[in-house]
Amino acid sequence: MKWTVTEKTGLHKRIRNLPENVQNLLIALKKDMEANGPIRGDWQNFGALSGGRYHCHLKKGRPTYVAIWEVTDKEIRLIEVTYAGTHEKAPY
To answer: Within 13 Å and on the Cβ side, how many CA atoms surround 84?
Structure first.
């Protein structure tokens, strides 16, 4: 059964301002989560955060870009991407 991946309200504006290659990596991450779920250990620097939240690096270097997501409902398999942007401004 597939997962549904959504974006937090207002995140779309932030994503549009990211470099194109980072946007493409975020799209690939979302497709990977739809097919395989929120635990993405095969992505760079994947890690669990508190409260059912996870993160990984989309692009290393300077600046480093990260994505943060959370499982909002395990029963109906719902994931919400809450942040995509630079590592320095990430709400860990």
So the answer is: 28
Tell me how far apart the alpha carbons of residues 82 and 84 are, in angstroms, rounded to a whole number. 7
CATH architecture of the domain with range 4-89: 2-Layer Sandwich (3.30)
Both tokens assigned to 81: 């991407």
- Tokens 């719902």 sit on residue: 78
Reading the chain (92 residues) residue by residue, the pLDDT tens digits are 799 999 999 999 999 999 999 999 999 999 999 999 999 999 999 999 998 899 999 999 999 999 999 999 999 999 999 999 999 889 88
- Domain map (residue ranges) of the chain: 4-89
User: How far is residue 40's CA from residue 5's CA, in Å, rounded to a whole number?
Assistant: 14
Structure tokens at 91: 């709400």
Q: How far is the C-alpha of 57 from the C-alpha of 68, rounded, in Å?
A: 9
